């Protein structure tokens, strides 16, 4: 069980991750030039952009739902891992459309925040996994 200090830290991390991911949703869903460029470069426009946007929206909702914050952190960690890997392992690169690496840096911040959330709320996550296991794999 996390201490009250850990819960407060988790909430700070949850809000940071939710705000950053949440503010990018408008751009993904409206077809703004930067995300269209990113997903075109990756060969995944428009479906990859929509999938990323929906995944981030679900992560934001879960991060702000106390009982599901660990799952939101895990989903956010997965989405940001994919985004950061795409930046590092493709011709996309760290600097996109002369942004000075801002988008990449925000991804790193979200990744670190989500990793912290998953660590702090690991018992919550394990409890949820065990509950699902008991429900779907009765002994």
Question: Could you characterize the architecture of this molecule?
Answer:
With 139 residues, the protein is mainly α. It has one domain. It is 78% helix and 0% strand. It has helices at 4-30, 33-41, 47-63, 69-89, 102-120, 122-136. The two termini are 27 Å apart.
In terms of topology, how is this protein built?
Layout: H1 4-30, H2 33-41, H3 47-63, H4 69-89, H5 102-120, H6 122-136
Helix pairs in contact: 1-3, 1-5, 3-4, 4-5
Number of spatially distinct domains: 1
The coarse silhouette is globular
How far apart are the first and last residues' alpha carbons, in Å?
A: 27 Å
SS strand fraction:
under 5%
Helix count from the secondary structure assignment = 6
Tags for this entry?
single chain; 139 residues; mainly alpha; 6 helices; globular
């Amino acid at each position: 069980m996390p201490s009250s200090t850990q819960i407060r830290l988790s909430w700070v991390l949850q809000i940071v991750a939710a705000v950053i991911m949440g503010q990018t949703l408008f751009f993904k869903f409206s077809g703004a030039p930067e995300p269209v460029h990113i997903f075109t470069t990756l060969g995944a426009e428009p479906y990859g952009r929509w999938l990323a946007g929906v995944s981030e929206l679900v992560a934001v909702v879960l991060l702000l739902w106390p009982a599901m914050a660990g799952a939101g952190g895990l989903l956010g960690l997965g989405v940001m891992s994919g985004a950061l890997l795409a930046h590092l392992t493709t011709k996309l690169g760290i600097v996109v459309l002369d942004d000075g690496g801002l988008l990449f840096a925000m991804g790193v911040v979200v990744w670190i925040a989500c990793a912290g959330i998953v660590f702090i709320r690991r018992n919550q996550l394990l409890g949820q996994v065990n509950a699902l296991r008991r429900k779907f794999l009765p002994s």
